[in-house]
Amino acid sequence: MCKFLRSVTFLFILLVAYQTAEAQISYYPLQKNAVSKPRPSGRQQADEPLSLPFWDDFSFSNGMPSDSLWITNGVYVNNGLAIAPPTIGVASFDGLDSFGAPYVASSTSFGTTDTLSSKPIDLSGLSAADDVYISFYYQYAGYGETPEESDTLSLAFKETDGTWNTVWPASASLNRDSSEFTQVLIKISNPEYFHENFQFQFSCFGRQSGAFDVWNIDYVYLNKNRSTLAEDTSYPDRSISSGPSSIFGKYNAVPISHFEYDYLTDLKFQLFNLDNIEDIDIDGQPRRQPFNYSLDVTITSWKDSASTAASFDNSSDITNSILFPQRISNITAPVSVLNIPEDAIARTDDSVFVDIKLVLNASDNVTTGDADVGDYLPEKYAPIGFRNNDTTTVKLELKDYYAYDDGTAEAAVGLNYSGDYIAYRFIRPAVEVGKDSVKALDMFFPYLGTSPANKSIYICIWDNDKDKPNNLLIRKAQSLLESGVNEFVRYEFEQAIVVPDTFYVGYLQNVNGKLGIGIDRNNNTQEDIFYNLDGEWQVNTIIGGSLLMRPVFGSSPKTITGIDRKPLKSTAIYPNPSSGLVYIEGQYDKVWVTDLRGITYTFSPENISNNLQSINIKHLPRGMYILQVQNKEQVYSTKIFKED
Fold this sequence. Notes:
six-stranded antiparallel sheet, single chain, flat, mainly beta, 644 residues
């Protein structure tokens, strides 16, 4: 008997350990209707074959790869899924088709997913002696979902008879470091490829049921008279890799009534030098790649449905800075260089939009004969224009809400069980009374296999205590609404809630199963995300990014400072494990038990005494369960084990 009890106890401990490992904040790839993918035009063009050189860095495409260069199925161009790319804009591959739907509904289905094919290219009249090479950069996962070991990205060439031959990765192993881009250089030498309708095609193999197994492609270049020498993996191109950042610190949006010029912060962005040759100039000195940049600001103010706009052009004064070969350079631009006058933004406006355009000038198209720093060879690169990747814009808002996110979700995060909490920390400046009240939450819950519509949550606001949520200020039952792609839904409180300088917004999940809120992977505020599974708040150390959750400030018919109710504290539930009756100290209106599959069993507790109730779980199968008790709007959860 003792041996049996020890075995049961050991199994219980194992199951608790397993459940604890599973019970944490979870990462969910986006699925149907959650990713705004470009749809193919359906046009069947009888274009003339392209001629060399072929070049695309995806910096001049919007959503869909350029249809003058590519035939695409499911691949989309974005600035969100790549980490430190060679240039702004990458082509991303996953398990969603061109309509944003899974290729196959089954979660266990694996096969070919996205493909990206070049338009026909005329290679007739050329041969292996002409040294025709193709090069490109690729990245494993980036900010997307990580491919499995068996998932692949491949490249194929098209023969004269239409046969596709996979030429890469062949025997080479793929770089599976998700933080790096790797450049590949392949020579085209088979005589079967030298015809007027040559094509190359990238394709992925992986899960076909969602935005799984992500690969990123950048900087595709096909030309003749190349070699394996260093100069042929080098390009006279200095590009913007990412940025610029916000001037509102961690925020991309701030309530205009909270704005102060003193809170403006420096801008940060990344540049990349694709030239990997440390050449010398005509005087025998190392060739510098000097650069400067401009930050052009446009401020558009709205008041009573009327708008006014003002522009400020600012060029940096950099004469001796160098972009080192094949290296990311992290640039910090003092906010003072923007020269924004203090009267350009008025807190009395209804809203203000700040657009900051970064323009890099690094002599990308300057030929060697024009300047010592020129390295553009027209006879080799024309008509390629390497200035396409030298301009980008960040758009910031001053309205009525705070936002860490940029408005686009690359994935979702969430919890798995009813009774779990997620909270998001915000810190506001001291403001005058009347401007310190939260009236609503803007949130985006994407489609994750099922629609979030009609799922039940409690939206919450907490005070701060020792850098963790404490003292629930309000909790409101809410049924979620359907939303479009990256479309926020505003959930309003009946009364505005006065919040301290540091406060938390979030929700209590009131259903079992997968429910996730969108997360922007480009802006990392994971240290401000908290979750609570069993009465203890934990900081998110697992998933980087910013939740698409925004507290909205303003007035409402009534403002309250908190609620009298306190969250339920832990209570005694015994015996545990149990084969029949489970005793619960306290009086509760509702008791329910949920198994690990998400199936819920509801009980009517039987009163034993004034402070003791019981339920009978004898009919339940043996295993681990989540037991939850509810008194009015308060819920307490714990794990129990049903033994035989």
